[in-house]
């Protein structure tokens, strides 16, 4: 977007205080990032959801640091005036702090992100604090955490009972104390998300977390049905069906080539007079025609 000034973590906190909703979308490549920026999105998340969405995996777990760097760098080239957050992949922040900081440094320096996102609550608070103290903004992520999907028993809504809702609140508070600039709440009941949002001072960004959060994030491919076989999700609103348009367009191309309707005269480049004669000889050209 021409003349757009990118957000920063201070502005995002002011947006929460002013009740100005934050818009976030995932993007994984140059064209989608460019289009998202032109549309006025506040924040782009380069999520490890690329594993499911663009790399063909069944989960986010196989996504590597190299994958994240490559895709984040492409997004950064496409959205130079948008705040970009990159996920830290599976098991890259559960070892030593030195190893974690090396990974963060690579994603920031080579991927050109402005911040990183980490899944987990109180159990990763010390690591979050170390990264923040090193000068890197961190976005938290609690509720359904896809990297832990095998441990939590599948894609289940979080915060349905009092015990689970209290756990989420405690995790959010631990992350706030550790210095996160915001927290993604994924597949969390609206009631639990509302309490967390009211309790902590940093913005909450919901995905399937209801209406009482400080912002929303959805996957680029979900809101546009940009996928071979789209699965409806209750928490997603779709705004276009480009998947069907793509299929129709490519099928039309295949049909035109098969029936020789493409290329037409207007798609052909003509050589100067006499070129064929000089290449093949006049007699051979006439015999070929």
TrEMBL record:
Binding locations of 3-methyl-2-oxobutanoate: 48-49, 87, 117
How is the co-factor bound, per the entry? Binds 1 Mg(2+) ion per subunit.
Per its UniProt record, what Gene3D superfamilies does this chain match? Phosphoenolpyruvate-binding domains
Q: What is its EC number?
A: 2.1.2.11
Q: Where in the cell is it found?
A: Cytoplasm
Major enzyme class: transferase
The protein's matches in InterPro entries, at most eight in alphabetical order, are given as:
Pantoate_hydroxy_MeTrfase, Pyrv/PenolPyrv_kinase-like_dom, Pyrv_kinase-like_dom_sf
Catalysed conversion reaction:
(6R)-5,10-methylene-5,6,7,8-tetrahydrofolate + 3-methyl-2-oxobutanoate + H2O = 2-dehydropantoate + (6S)-5,6,7,8-tetrahydrofolate
Q: Which cofactor does it need?
A: Mg(2+)
What are the record keywords, sorted?
Cytoplasm, Magnesium, Metal-binding, Pantothenate biosynthesis, Transferase
Q: What does this protein do?
A: Catalyzes the reversible reaction in which hydroxymethyl group from 5,10-methylenetetrahydrofolate is transferred onto alpha-ketoisovalerate to form ketopantoate.
The record, for PANTHER family, names: 3-METHYL-2-OXOBUTANOATE HYDROXYMETHYLTRANSFERASE (PTHR20881)
By sequence similarity, the record places it as follows: Belongs to the PanB family.
Assembly and partners are described as:
Homodecamer; pentamer of dimers.
Q: Which HAMAP family does this one have?
A: PanB
Protein name as it appears in the record: 3-methyl-2-oxobutanoate hydroxymethyltransferase
Organism the protein comes from: Paenibacillus haidiansis
Instruction: Tell me the gene name.
Output: panB
